[in-house]
Amino acid sequence: MSPYVSRLRSRPHGPFPAPSRLRLPGGARRPRRVAMLSVHTSPLHQPGTGDAGGMNVYIVELAKKLASINIEVEIFTRATTGTLPPAVDLAPGVLVRHVDAGPYEGLAKEELPAQLCAFTHGVMQAWAGHRPGYYDLVHSHYWLSGHVGWLAAERWGVPLVHAMHTMAKVKNAALAVGDTPEPAARVIGETQVVRAADRLIANTAEEADELIRHYDAAPGRVAVVHPGVNLDRFRPTHGGIAESRAAARARLGLPQDAVIPLFAGRIQPLKAPDILLRATAALLAEDPSLRSRLVVPVVGGPSGSGLAKPEGLQKLAARLGIADLVRFRPPVGQEQLADWYRAASVLVMPSYSESFGLVAIEAQACGTPVIAAAVGGLPVAVRDGVSGFLVTGHDPADYARALRRFLEDPDLATRMGADAARHAQSFGWDTAAAATGDVYTAAMQERRRHLRSAHG
């Protein structure tokens, strides 16, 4: 057994304040500087392919907003090319540090546990160059980072705040056909991180319940903080929803009168883009005349187990007889992604598991409704019947029925899109950063209480 594990098992767990009581008296101090850890994916990488996705967006946007409320952030991530400078200023108050750990390229996420020692060494080297107390707190993202954060927090004598983003037990309980289960080593690793963390940040109340139910997290250590959306970038343009959609379609070369269901994200079984294709084929089987009215963009690149068959989705479109309707596009930057959202009639998210589903909020902020699987955080992100439709299960026929509503009612996308844009307004990053700062403050205050009690 790891000495850290045995030490933590004897660490007191209570009493701890419930998430609803995280507001503290005015005298409580927020951290001045946070070490944020993202081992397996860099905030500088393009979301939508490889291991880059919603977590990248989350880290970048949260770090910027934390800096705007005077919490400096240094993000440690693994260097993936030899040409990267050791440190990059991402924004005022946000620094990205590149750590050499393993070969730069060709290293799969599953191989990264063997590089955690090297990554930890790099983090400790950076810390050794500073005065004592330079970092007030460690915030780790994903279980791999959690193990580095566990050691760093212990060594520096500061709290560890951890965000899972996804959990092996939850993913394994809802595997897509052909997907690969998460290994037992990850389950064990996540259990250890949950035990070690002073605070766990969950995206939704359901995720908080999953941490408690599946990983025996102490309820008082779990705080719910909804992720946000960049409302300056993701918004309708040119006045109303219909005008915004028309302008975006003109820029992207899409037909003005088509019904356009969009998939945006990593192409892998977990995200289930195949269900959108199968639903499209089901619609055409019922009514072949719809072919002239449909365009189906798929924006993203292969990821995870989808890398094993990178052309699989194109081949499926050909087998289903809809290759002429599907437009495959590589991952795009955030500004152009916003245009794809605006151009779409509806975003389709048939995922088997989503801790939150930032893509759904981004699309709604642009004035586009969402058809989503009723899993994970999507029932929070999407207001069923108002900003979109939630579908139980993953039967393509059910998604076809939801899509048919947009085909039968040409104004539905505009009406529902207006409600979607209003719904998204409650998910700004300012709110998320303020709530995260409160979690940091609570963790620091609690650690000081324990230190005082330990020293009599």
Top keywords for this entry?
single chain; 6-stranded parallel beta sheet; elongated; alpha/beta; 16 helices; 8-stranded mixed beta sheet; 456 residues
Give an overview in words:
An 8-stranded mixed beta sheet has the order 3-4-2-1-5-6-7-8, with helices on both faces. The chain has a 6-stranded parallel beta sheet with strand order 11-10-9-12-13-14, sandwiched between helices. Mean pLDDT is 89; it is low at 1-26. It has 16 helices and 14 strands. Helices cover 41% and strands 14% of the residues.
Number of strands: 14
Strand line-up in the sheet with most strands:
3-4-2-1-5-6-7-8
| Amount of beta strand | 5-15%
Task: Name the helix and strand elements from N-terminus to C-terminus, one letter apiece.
Answer: HEHEEEHEHEHHEHEHEHEHEHEHEHEHHH
Counting DSSP H or I runs of 4 or more residues, the number of helices is 16
Mean pLDDT: 89
Main beta sheet, described?
A: 8 strands, mixed
Q: Write down the overall geometry.
A: elongated
Cα end-to-end separation? 30 Å
Helix content: 40-55%
Low-confidence stretches: 1-26
Radius of gyration: 22 Å
Structural class: alpha/beta
Region (Disordered): 1-27
InterPro entries: Glyco_trans_1, Glyco_trans_4-like_N, Mycothiol_biosynthesis_MshA
Protein name: D-inositol-3-phosphate glycosyltransferase
Function: Catalyzes the transfer of a N-acetyl-glucosamine moiety to 1D-myo-inositol 3-phosphate to produce 1D-myo-inositol 2-acetamido-2-deoxy-glucopyranoside 3-phosphate in the mycothiol biosynthesis pathway.
